[in-house]
Amino acid sequence: MSDIIYTKVDEAPELASASFLPIIKKFAAAAGVSVGTKDISLAGRILAAFPDHLKPEQRQSDDLAELGKLVKQAEANVIKLPNISASVPQLVAAITELQSQGFALPDYPEAPATDAEKAVRATYDTLKGSAVNPVLREGNSDRRAAKAVKSFAQKNPHRMGEWTADSKTKVSSMSGGDFFSNEVSATLASETGAKIVLETAAGETVLKDGLSYPAGTVVDATYMSAAALESFLNAQIEETKADGTLFSLHMKATMMKVSDPIIFGHAVKAFLAPVFEKHGAAMKELGVNPNSGLGDLLARVKDNADIMGDIDACMAARPPMYMVDSDKGITNLHVSSDVIIDASMPALIRAGGKGWGPDGKEQDSNCVIPDNSYAPVYDETINFFKENGKLNPATAGTVQNIGLMAQKAEEYGSHPTTFELPEAGTVKMILDDGTVLHSHKVEAGDIWRSASARKAPIEDWVNLAIDRQKAEGCRAIFWLDADRAHDAELIAYVKPILEAKGVADKFEIMAPREATRASLETITKGENTIAITGNVLRDYLTDLFPILELATSAKMLSIVKLMQGGGLFETGAGGSAPKHVQQLAEESHLRWDSLGEFCALGESLKFLADSKGNEKARVLGEAVDAATQGILDNDRSPSRKVGEPDNRDSHYWFARYWAEALAAQGDDAELAAHFAPVAKALAEGEAAIVAELAAAQGAAADLGGYYHTDAAKTAAVMRPSATLNSIIG
Predict the structure, then answer these.
(1) Which of these, 505, 476, 480, lies nearest to 493 by C-alpha position?
(2) Spatial CA neighbour of 106 closest among 119, 92, 118, 120
(3) What global pTM score does this model have?
(4) Is the pLDDT of residue 575 over 80?
(5) H-state helical runs in 551-614
(6) CA neighbor of 658 nearest in space, from 674, 669, 635
(7) Pairing state between β 203-213 and 192-200
(8) pLDDT on residue 652
(9) Do the Cβ atoms of 173 and 263 come closer than 8 Å?
(10) Pick from 312, 308, 309, 288: which is nearest to 300 by CA?
C-alpha cells in the first residue's frame, strides 16, 4: 500500500488531478513518499460492480471496498476529493456513456420485471446517492477555514448581495406530518438485532431483516405523510404566486438518495397537477416518473402535442420558477441533483436572498424546504440578515465545525432502512426479543425511515469537540434541540462526558435556530465559534458559513480523524462542479480552484510524518503551507474567464512556490539541494510555461468522455505545457 492514497473521482476535481497529481508524485518521491490512487469515481464503481459483463482487460477492482477496509486501519492516509453522489439521471447517463465506449453493461431497469432485472437494479441502486462517504468516513469531521485562507478572505473581501428588511425571500416548511414532527428515538441498553415490518389487514410484510446494533446505539424512526406533503406543496405554489416571488425547492437528493427523490417527485407532480390529472395514464405509458424530474418528463412527452400544450398552459398559470440555467430553460425541478440545498441556499443568501428567474433576472424567492428538521437554520439566517444587513467578510469571524458522521451516523446512514410504503398499515421496528422499539401508523405513499448513531462515534465526537475547543479557546455550541427526540438522546451522552472532563462550562447546548443566531452574532462581532453538530448539519453548515465568509466552501480544511488512528483528508465541501467541466469542454478553461487539495495535501504529509516518523514528509508538508500562502498572497488562484489564468496556471505557481520553499528551508539540506535546481528551472521557464498554458485556451477540449474520460486525451488537455512537463516529468 502506498504511503498516501489519492482518490480518483469525477468531473472538475478529477480533471484538476490530471494536472496536479504528477506534481505531487514528483515532489513526494524526493522524500521517499509513495502516492497511489484508488478509483471511487461513478464510472469506476459501475465497472467494478459488473465484472461478469466485461472482458477480462476491461474489469476493474472494487477500489471503494478496498478503501473501506483501509480506513479501519491505523496506517490509513487518504486524500479524498469530491465525487458524484449520483441521481438516477446521472447514473443512467454514465451507463450509456460506458456502453458507447464498448463496455457491455446492462441497462438500468426503470421498471424491473424479471428476477434478473431486479438483480441488476439492486446492484445499480447501491451506486446511487452518497455511496462513497458512508464507506470512507470511519471517523468524525473537523472542518474549518485554514488560517491563510481566512486571512486572505478578510484582506480581499468578496462581493455580497444587499439584504433589505422588505425582502420577500423566506423559508417555508411543513408544520406537521414531516420527519421532524413524527420522529421517535431510543438508546439501546444492550446489543440486539432487529427487523422492520409493515402490518396491514392482510398480514405482515418484512421490509428489512437482519439489522444489528451494538449496545448504546441511538435508533430513530420517523415518517413523512404523503398527504401532508401534497397539501403543503399545493399551498406553497399558491402562496408563491400571491407573493410574486420565485418557487424554489431545496433538497438533498444526492445524500438522501431514497427519500428526497420521492419528495422531489411529489413537487414535480404538484407543480404540474392539472397535467397529471388529465394525462396521467398516457404519461405513465410513456415511462414518465416524476421522481426523475421535469427534464426527463419533457423528453418523454415532447412528441405529444396535447400534453405539451397543457404543460405550457400549466406553467404559464404557475408562479415563475427558480432556475438552474435560465438561458437553457433548466428549472429548479428539471433534475433532482441540480439543486442541492447545502449549495443552493448559501448561494441565495449570499446574493441578498435573490435567485435567478426564467427571465434571467434576480428575484426574491420562496425557499421551499419540506422537512422542518434543519430548515430553521436557513430561516433564521435570512431573518438575521433582513434585520442586520449583509455580513462583512472583511471583519467577520469564523464558524468551525465538529461533525458526528462516523459509522454511517444519523440520516445519512438511513438509505437501507427507508421505504415508500405500498399500502396503509403500521410500521414497526421489532427487536430480537420481540420488543417493539418504534411504531407508526402510516398511509400508502408515506415515506418511513430509520437512522442510527452508535455509542463509540458519539463519544469520539464529544471528545473531538473538547480537544478543538481547548485548542481554539473560543465559544463552542452543541447544535442540539432538547425538544427533538433524537437530539434528546444525544444530549444524554453529551452532558455526562462534559461534566466528567470538567469542561461543562466551556460549552453551550442550543436548538439549531437559536444556535444559528448566536453564531451569526458571534462572527458579526469578529469572534469565532465552533458548531458541534450531527451529520446533516455538518454538511449544511460547512457550506453555509464558508460561502458567507470565504465566498466558497471548496477552500475548507476538512480532516476526518479516523477512529482506528488513520487520517482521511477531504478537499473541502465544494462538490464536483459540472459547470466547470462544461466550460472546459467548450473553451478549454478550467476554473476549479485546487486550494482544498493544497490544504489536504499539507495535512496529509504532516500526518505521515507523525504516524511514520518521516521527517522529510514534514518538511514537504510545511513547504506546502508556504506554497498555499504564496498562491493566496500573489493572487494565483484560477480566474472564471477564458483567456485568463486557470487551474493549470495555479498548479504551475504552486509547484514553483513549493520548490522555492523547499530550496530555502534549513531543516533538511538534502531536500534543499534537490529542489534548488527544480525551483530555478520553474522560475526560468516562467515565460514559456505561461505562454504555453495560455495557448491551450479558447478552443473546445476533447476529453474522450464525461464520466469516463480518456486518460491520454485528458492529460493532453490538462498538461499542455511542454516546458513544465519536462521539469516535472
Answers:
(1) 480
(2) 120
(3) 0.85
(4) no
(5) 578-587, 595-612
(6) 674
(7) antiparallel
(8) 98
(9) no
(10) 288
